[in-house]
Amino acid sequence: QQQVKQSPQSLIVQKGGISIINCAYENTAFDYFPWYQQFPGKGPALLIAIRPDVSEKKEGRFTISFNKSAKQFSLHIMDSQPGDSATYFCAASKFLGAQKLVFGQGTRLTINP
Amino acid sequence: DAGVIQSPRHEVTEMGQEVTLRCKPISGHNSLFWYRQTMMRGLELLIYFNNNVPIDDSGMPEDRFSAKMPNASFSTLKIQPSEPRDSAVYFCASSLSLANEKLFFGSGTQLSVL
User: Fold this and answer.
1) Are A49 and B48 a contacting pair at CB < 8 A?
2) Could you tell me what percent of chain A has a pLDDT over 90?
3) Cβ-based burial of A70 (10 A; exposed 0-12, middle 13-18, buried ≥19)
4) pLDDT value at position B108?
5) pLDDT, tens digit (0-9, with 9 covering 90-100), for A65-94
6) Which of these, A4, A83, B29, B98, could form a disulfide with B94 (CB 3.0-4.6 Å)?
7) For residue B108, which residues of chain A lie inside 8 Å, CB to CB?
8) Considering only CB atoms, which chain B residues are within 8 Å of A101?
9) What is the pLDDT of residue B98?
């Protein structure tokens, strides 16, 4: 059972453009929503996270938008750079901390120079 | 800090053989997690420990899989006997505590079972 659905599977964006990756969840008990970034040959690394008490969180060029009623959240990368090319995973958890994270299937992002 | 250290980086074995994957968490981290990553199923949590004690092993796929954490600086994931469908990248991750939201992943072990 896929509890977190992520789209698109792959995305190509021109340098300087905005990259947008979307996730939808089913379990209303989820209350922690992180995004992880993974480069080839490396493990995922926490990028940014949000809790449902806010609708948006911004860290540098990365922004999470959260829509509790629609059970959706998205990652926006502003001024996308070739160094942002990686696989991005959304995740969700209903437990304290990072316990029992449920991950989306991932989006392979390519930023063309 | 060197981060989470996993060994080996790559393991190729034949069906039926025993496989042992190793992990050294970040010093001072009390929680350790084992994940498996495949194209079909993505990232799946297998088991996690807190203070060396297994908390939840409901993600372990079969009895062929077992994990131990004999001390705060070492954990193993063992598959016996291994099968081709076990081929995947296995990640170990650690966090300061179960209440801490930041997971630090190792670089993974790429396992191929022929």
Assistant:
1) no
2) 89
3) exposed
4) 97
5) 999 999 999 999 999 999 999 999 999 998
6) B29
7) 42-43
8) 45, 103
9) 87
